Every structure is written in structure tokens, then in C-alpha cells.
């Protein structure tokens, strides 16, 4: 009895109980369920992408398989973009930039980067890579991401396109009507193709600064800002001030234009009518003023010429002689003035002098300026003498302009260039 009991006791210690068996089976089933769910999700994602799963890293063990699936799951959760093939270099470069940021965050190896990048190819790009692997005999288990990029760029980002983008970055400037922010966006977008031209911040800052528009660069460059952001901030502030000044000028111009239109009540025909009326009035005035007044050189009366004159010849009128027209009454005032000065109130006459205009005079005396001048549409010779004591006007101009003549209150003795005295 004792032996059987010991035998049963030994059997109980070596064989697991039913509870332990159930617990182990549950753990195994849970692990298989989780693995199946992960594989199912991976297969569904691959079907959506029209891709086939990539092989795990070399050494196809269970641990390597699990590690690959975990890496792939983390990568898919980040939402990497797919690449279906494009001839736009900006699209190609943007796709590479996006997935490379994820590679850095996940700390992937060069081979893992290549495998994950290939996993995101679809459509035309996927077909191209299949042919590339077959034709070149590539081993995806050892191929690095740098080797993949070399073949990828040769297909979708060739050297001729890269050189074109480099030239665009070299020639980039803020053209007319381009805002500073638009210029900044283009600069940053193209800078990736010309990193060798601006390897540090100082060179990048000077390149951006020199490309600004003339109306902004002249005010920014004088400050010699050391950082890129300081140049950008200064350019934005300068542009805002320039735009405010331009809007103010436009408002002033529009107000002036609106005022001009209001004068004609907004009707261009009124402007034309007003202009026509002014021209008509001016023409009539010019006709009246320009009507010639003829004087006879024989009798010195107005209205006819000497070849038509039937009157007896009279001497040329002067201030002291009989003058036709409105000047004749001056003799009465002159005679009254002389009668008043015949008594005790005689004063010594003032001495004056005047110059005469001589045709073809070779040299004009110092202080004398002569020329022709238009007075009420009458062209006459003018002589300015800085040493003259009085101003004189020809009798013909007095008549033509209907100027009232009054005698001098003080007698004036005038000496002519010929030495003759004229006593008024």
C-alpha cells in the first residue's frame, strides 16, 4: 500500500495537472491569435498597396520574423506616403524627405530603410522596381538605402532635372508683385537642391538678402543682419511699410481723379463742352485783342495807312506833341500844370536819361538788357536799363493799349543819346 501511494505521489509530481495544462494552452492560443491578427492586418495593408510582403532580414528565424513584423507595424502606424511614380522632381524629393524623417525616428538600419522604402512603392514605381531587381540581380536582404536611392534618382530624378533645379535656385530673385513670403517659400523649396552653394547660415542669409527686390533690399542690406531669420523679419517689416505708402499714394491719386470727374458731374461730355466753350471764348478774346490798329505814318491818325492818306503830312507825335486817341487830353493837363509853375513855386527839373534801341547794335552797354516782349498780344522791343531814372513807353503802345496819360507833378529833363534835352 505504501509503495502504491509513493508511486502515485511521484506520478502526481511529474505530470502537470489539468489546470496547468489549460493555462498553458490558453497562453499559446493567445499568442497565436495575436500573431494571426498582426499577419492579417499586414496582409490587408499589402493588398491595399498592391504590394507583396518583404522578406525578413537574413537569418529567417522566428525571432527575426517577429522583429521584422514589429518594425513594419510601427512604420505603418506613422502613416508613410506611397509613391506611384512621378516626373515632377518636387514630388519625388518630397516623398524621399517624408519617409527619411520616419527612418530617423525609428532608428532603422540602412538595409531596413531600403526594405521599408520599397514597401511603399506602388503602381508604376512598383513595377519598375520589380524589373530592376530581376534585371540587375539585386539581393533585397543586403541592399542598402543609399544603393536604392542611386537607382531611384536615376529613374525619377535624373541629373538634367537636378541641374535645372540648381539653376532655378541660383537665379531666384523677388520679382515684381512677388511678396516676401512667396519669395521665402520658393527659396526654401529650392535650397535643398543647392546646399553645396549655401553650406552655412551666413551664405544662405546673404543669398536670400541679395535676391530681395530693389525697394526692400536697399533698406535691409544696410543693417548687416547676422542671422537668416533677422533678414526675413526685416524684409517683412520693410515690405509692410512700402505697401502702406503705396496704398496712400493710390488713395490720393483716386481722390484727385474723382475730384476731376466731379467737376464735370461725372459726364465726360460736360468736360468736352466746358473745354470747347473756354476755347471759343479764348478765340474770341484773342480775335478782339489781336485786331490790328493801323496808324498813318503821314498824318498819324488811326484807321488807315500812309499810302491811303489824303490828309496833310504832320510830324511824328511825341509826348509833347499832339497825340491821337486817348492821349490828346494830356495837353490840357500839361498846359494847366505849366501855368501853375510859372509863378513862385518853380522847382529845378529832375535830370533823367534814356537809351535808344539801335538796329544791329554790336555791343549793348553794361547794365542794359534788351529783347522782345509780348504785351497784350502786342510784340514790342523792351530795354531794361539798371541806371535809368524813369521808365518810358512808346506813344504807339499808349494808343494801342488805351492807357490814360497824366502829366508829371515835377518837371523832368530827359537827355537823349544824341545829347538833346527834353523838358516835360
Automatic annotation (TrEMBL):
Molecular function per GO: nucleic acid binding; zinc ion binding
Annotated Pfam families: Retrotrans_gag, RVP_2
Segments for region (Disordered): 245-285
Ranges for domain CCHC-type: 296-311
Record PROSITE patterns: ZF_CCHC
Keyword entries, A-Z: Metal-binding, Zinc, Zinc-finger
SUPFAM superfamilies: Retrovirus zinc finger-like domains
Biased composition annotated in UniProt, kind: Polar residues: 251-263
Name used for this protein in its record: CCHC-type domain-containing protein
